[in-house]
């Protein structure tokens, strides 16, 4: 802004000192060609001189905060009421999730109204007088601390938060309710697993079914040194929850000479050297598929955890934290291999409650 655009009464007097105490140039000269024109005259807003206009602004701000509160309540209600599988048509986007649309709209409206209310409050009701603050030393002298405290008190008074109780109440209400949206979002992580991680669909009498042929396995179908993958009878790839179940139910079936089995319990839980171990790596849950028949070691291809199937499935290399769980098997009256019970320990990677 040039000095010609400043009202004459605001221009510095010619007789003033060329420099103030802090070096601000009042009058241009050859050494300092840029003069400080000063601040333009303050123009009062309508809210500063008309209390009715100030009341209207106060009600507008309060309305925005109230809408934010209602939007937050709508967010929570949408999360609790709208079915996760329901879809709606929204032009021009097309078919979208009704729940996601409702959550996004209500959360966005809640945030927007808090921001818009704060901006309108600052622009219409808080003090807008420009203040020139002189430079001061960086160190916090006692005088500076006293000034900061005084400025804070002055700012609190100029914000009119003490006098405008309606704004204060609705603002606190909007800010207090909004965090509830985040609390309810935690529910989107899914229901608590309960004991699901400790159990599979294996149970007493469940037949072992070859995953390649979908036929029940007989002891004679498993040759020494071979590796067969099995799943429980009744589980089908066409089931809605097949992937969820097979991630815990998949088995590795290996036949080892009984004299080569080192672990006593493993031998007791086998049938004529046929052992059944979980196919799910105990590191991060990758499917194990690499078998070395001479050593009876199996290798997880993801992070190279190696397990000894002749010694209780214990870890002999890699980051896995515990041995592969073994499923106790026997032969039923019809000659097919079947489970004696579910796994005695959880399948897959460790989890917090595992112990």
Give a topology summary:
Elements lengths: L45 H4 L1 H31 L5 E4 L3 E4 H27 L17 H17 L6 H13 L1 H7 L22 E3 L16 E6 L9 H8 L1 E5 L8 H5 L5 E5 L11 E3 L4 E3 L6 E3 L5 E4 L8 E2 L1 E3 L5 E3 L16
Helix pairs in contact: 2-3, 2-5, 2-6
Protein name: Cytochrome bc1 complex Rieske iron-sulfur subunit
Subunit structure: The cytochrome bc1 complex is composed of a cytochrome b (QcrB), the Rieske iron-sulfur protein (QcrA) and a diheme cytochrome c (QcrC) subunit.
InterPro entries: QcrA_N (IPR045603), Rieske_2Fe-2S (IPR017941), Rieske_2Fe-2S_sf (IPR036922), Rieske_Fe-S_prot (IPR014349), Rieske_Fe-S_prot_C (IPR005805)
C-alpha Rg (nearest Å): 38 Å
**Major sheet size, sense and barrel closure:** 5 strands, antiparallel
What structural category do the secondary elements indicate? alpha+beta
Portion in beta strands: 5-15%
- Give the strand order, joined by hyphens, for the main sheet: 3-4-5-6-11
Family: Belongs to the Rieske iron-sulfur protein family.
Cofactor: [2Fe-2S] cluster
Subcellular location: Cell membrane
GO cellular component, one term: plasma membrane
